[in-house]
Amino acid sequence: MMINYSCINRLRTLRDIIRYTTTIFNKSGIFFGHGSDNAYDEAVYLILHSLNLTADNLDIFLDSNITENEIRKILHLISKRVDLRIPVSYLTEESLLQGYKFYINKNAIIPRSPISEIIQNCIYPWVKDPESITSILDLCTGSGCLAILSALSFQRSIVTATDISEKALKIAEKNINYYNLQDRIKIINSNLFDDIPISQYDIIICNPPYVNTQSLNNLPEEYLHEPIIALDGGEDGMSIIKNIKKVKIFLKREGILVLEIGNEYNNFIKHFQNINPTWITTANTENSIMLLHKEQIP
Fold it and tell me: Whose CB among 16, 42, 201, 225 lies 3.0–4.6 Å from 137's, allowing a Cys bridge?
């Protein structure tokens, strides 16, 4: 869908450009799944970011005039979103999760894990005293968002954030520095547990690659902009998950594992018939995140 730049003279106000962008997004068939679930919210976010405005300013500036250069910039972003199917977060290099802002680029998946909701609630009721948590391991940290949320929720904890991708860890480091948590979050380049010094943690969090091959081949174009290594879970989505059995060595006696498996519930059950985890329901997921106590791990 080619953007019609001849419409510039008819787009005068912020209200005009939001209406226009929402219409374009609705007609284009783009997929929403990286922070918003509808055309209007995505249009507002993209436009306000382009204008260096916040959502709090929206009502105030709705009828303000926009300059031609501002409109051209917005139309260019719309074109990239629609024609190239680039997720908005990659266009703005910013993602919001649980009210927190994270820097992001194409070297890491866009922050969206529902584990973030559980962390925000301090993993209650399974963790009864957040101040008792002093050590957390975040496997497959990507942008570092879950490690950062963990450090903010469990304020006495030291967090270790690991990933196989050095490029992703550079993004994580930038986000960690943004929140001034470099003294509390340690970064390690490691393929799961391979290069992590033996230590024991109160909590281990893991959002691994888990998309099965058939699903991977049918993903909307937007997801194809994300690193394949962060999505690909092999034929049945379990190729990485099957290798995290070492987790028991790294957990304290009362330690817990919080593991995300996305839509691979049936495949997980096939592989781990002897495990009976607690399935945690979030606002938008069910049977996607499990909690295991150390003694439940074979």
Answer: 201
